[in-house]
Amino acid sequence: MHAFPAPTPRSSLERRGSAGCAMQGRSPAARRRARWGVVVLIGWGLGACNGGETLGGPPLAGFAAVAAGAGFACGATPSGVAYCWGDGWYGQLGTGATQTNSTTPVPVAGGLTFTALTAGSNFACAVTPSGTAYCWGGGQLGNGSTAGSATPLAVAGGLAFTTVSAGPFFACGVTTSGAAYCWGGNGAGQLGTGTQTGSLTPVPVAGGLAFTTVSVGGGLGGGGFACGITTVGAAYCWGDNIAGELGIGTTTGPQNCFSVSHPQACSTTPVAVAGGLTFRAISAGSGFACGVTTSGAAYCWGANPYGQLGTGTTTGSATPVTVAGGLSFRAVSAGASAACGVTTSGVAECWGVNSDGQLGTGSTTASTTPAAVVGGLTFSGVSAGDAFVCGVATSGSAYCWGANTAGQIGDGFAGFDATPAPVTGGHTFTALSVGGGAACGVTPSSTAYCWGMNSDGQLGTGTTAGSATPVAVAGGLAFTTVSAGHAFACGVTTSGTAQCWGVNTFGQLGTGTTTGSATPATVAGGLTFTTVSASDASACGVTTSGAAYCWGANFRGELGTGTTNGSATPAAVVGGLSFKAVSVGGQEFACGVTTSGAAYCWGDNLYGELGTGTSIGPQSCGGAACSMMPVAVGGGLSFGSASTGNGFACGVATSGAAYCWGVNVNGNLGTGTSTGTATPAAVAGGLSFSEVSAGDGSACGVTTSGAAYCWGNGSSGQLGTGTRTSSSTPLGTLGGLGITAVSAGGGFAGPGFAGFACGVTTSGVAYCWGANTDGQLGTGSIGGPALVPTRVAQ
User: What CA–CA distances, in Å, run from 139 to 171, 341, 403?
Assistant: First the structure.
């Protein structure tokens, strides 16, 4: 019996660190894996990529095709320009260099344009509009030589190809006449010529069959195999058959290859796949193959130790077996012990081994049945490589997930990713804030970006068009921090000026008027701020002298001025306190921490959110309990920070313990109950936090070890646990990401805005989870929620 190597188990996702634009290649021996299971994608996903910053990668206009190989990937734009990224040791990136990796796409040299491309074990091939095939990388280039090339070389023979597929040290293609040709190694008969003799140039596959496509994979016997679909939809395979990957109903024969002393089952000519099925797509992986019938049903056959056949078991099959779930697929791609497909509705589903997150589910848990790729993206195609997967979204943007040992995810970072990461880098953030249906962040270059709902210009772009990916705030200002509220946002520039944009019905932009603005408008008064906080209809900021100022609506005394009179310009908070920071909540109240660590709150007190020990008084605002000036939070605790949500607040004591107070209908205080409290109550679990963020019915915090925990209402997936289940105690978000900051937000204005949260990793990468009704997760899609942290798009 053939021994299958067990994948390296991972209990949690590795931290992703910035790797720059290129990494020096390592020796092949140090990073070699089973390099099979790659396919070609043709003409998928025409569209536009979102612009913005990249980390060394070029600004691409979108991808029409993408192919994942063994540690590297390649893609072609709608105009046919090819880019590659990842492992470049053998020159497989096509840039003219060897032993140099790239974590972002780099253009293939030569100025050629392509209509189809494929990534193999250590080489790539592509077809030009005239049908000429070119290959580059380590050997098997089909040019009559065993020498590799770091730039594209024409395949010999003068043949006109429509498709080509590269695998483990051999390749096959289909000509315009439907004839199949293969070249490279042939120990298992994988060239289909009737012999075991290899060829450095294309040789015709025996049998005289007319093919529409051919896919090559890695045979478990150490050779390779290939499968193709004829013009009448019949599937044929040839080459290695040790695991039944030829689909003929047996793992013995029909021939024996390699040597007399070590014979292995094979076929040196095409043999019909059993079952009489009519296929429209086929893909050969590592010891197994999958296909899609004309009815949309997916079938797989061959080896199955990790559930890569998708049947719900780990039992192999030498004949096609139906992939479980009853899904209707457009295409399927078989990789190395895992497979992925795209349903007719554009959902990507993956199954099999998941030790590197290659299923894209947000975890490293394997699945023997199709599991949906997280993020809410719709795909036109996917390509499964060696422990990683790439796909083209219907927007034309390319995403990859899984192993990233050589930068093959193409996002500019090191470390694997169990959720789709946008190719060509993406933004990194130093600050992030979640509001009602939108979020904003600041990059290391001090540029502010926002995404999500934009009905009132709260994205600051100068328009009211929403965006499901980050868009730059207009004006060219350099920001140090930004805060997203309900339908408006504010930020502090590097010079200390406060800027606000969006709705301004109550003067919450602080400009002295009630006229809204879709671009940043300077807050009046000439004050120099260090921080600012935006909420439902008011905002507050702290100046360099520690004085707190607030502006906007003041129905419950939330401006802290001693009155309930609103103000369209900054008004000083009374009491003469010196603050480090102030946070404005969604239930018309605010809290701040003084330079001595004392917490004070003011505004509405209906739920005891002022933390004074009572929900009665100390004053009355329109018949409701309130305080029009700061009152000390009870308990005698010393706080490092505080955050206000919708009717409740949380803070982190200098000891690292988290405390919350106020309304607790959803368990948002994290105490293990749903009973509210008017004084700070310790968050359960004994965790040590560095910060906490209170949102709408839920809260999230970051521990001193960099783990993110959330609690409260989970109906929209805002706890990031993979479910919609609420919790009255902290639960760790899935993904094991190293988080430095988190922001919880959502429905300041009521149930129309469901909860969501975002966090920034130690490498500055932004992830969001929860509701995505308006694109507020920034993933490039609008629709269903993400139940686990999902990477914000480029």
Answer: 11, 30, 24
